[in-house]
Amino acid sequence: MAILAVRRTVKAGVYGMIVLGFLFILVPGVFVRIFSPEPDVYSIASIVVQISALELIGVTLNMIYGGAMRGAGDTVSPMIVTFIGAISKDQPGLLDDHFAGLGAVRRMDCHGD
Q1: Is the pLDDT of residue 33 over 70?
Q2: Contacts of 48 (CB under 8 A, 6+ apart)
Q3: 35-64: b or e for each residue (b if 16 or more CB lie within 10 Å)?
Q4: In angstroms, rounded to a whole number, what is the distance separating the alpha carbons of residues 56 and 36?
Q5: What is the mean pLDDT of the chain?
């Protein structure tokens, strides 16, 4: 029964993130305008929003499977999944930095390093 629930949750999560990812790629300006109407911010943030669409499915799977394993009482597997997820979800963030030309400044601002 629990395996079926996880499968359904994964399916719903992935489908939802696919739709949201397409929106991020096709109309990133809609999401950027919510936070800042400035032209300089708009041009850079639109690229960052499009690249962040690559993170959505990985983050979703990481959260669902990690939560399912913790709920099952497993402690080692969630640690491994979280570690792999943390490494893989930051890769598009590195692309954001490269293409937006923000470098280490963005990393310090967003992650508090």
Answers
A1: yes
A2: 96, 99, 100
A3: eeeeeeeeebbbbbbbbbbbbbbbbbbbeb
A4: 22
A5: 78
State how far the Cα of 36 lies from the Cα of 105, in Å rounded to an integer.
Answer: 19
Rounded Cα distance, 38 and 62, in Å? 34
Residue type, 57: I
Task: Give the Cβ contact number of residue 85 at 10 Å.
Answer: 19
- Rounded CA-CA distance 17/35 in Å is 21
* Non-local CB neighbours of 29 within 8 Å, separated by 6+ positions: 42, 46
Choice between 69 and 96, residue whose per-residue pLDDT is larger: 69
Amino acid of residue 108: M
Please state, in angstroms and rounded to a whole number, the distance separating the CA atoms of residues 42 and 31: 10
**Could you tell me the pTM of the whole model?**
0.65
Amino acid (1-letter code) at residue 84: I
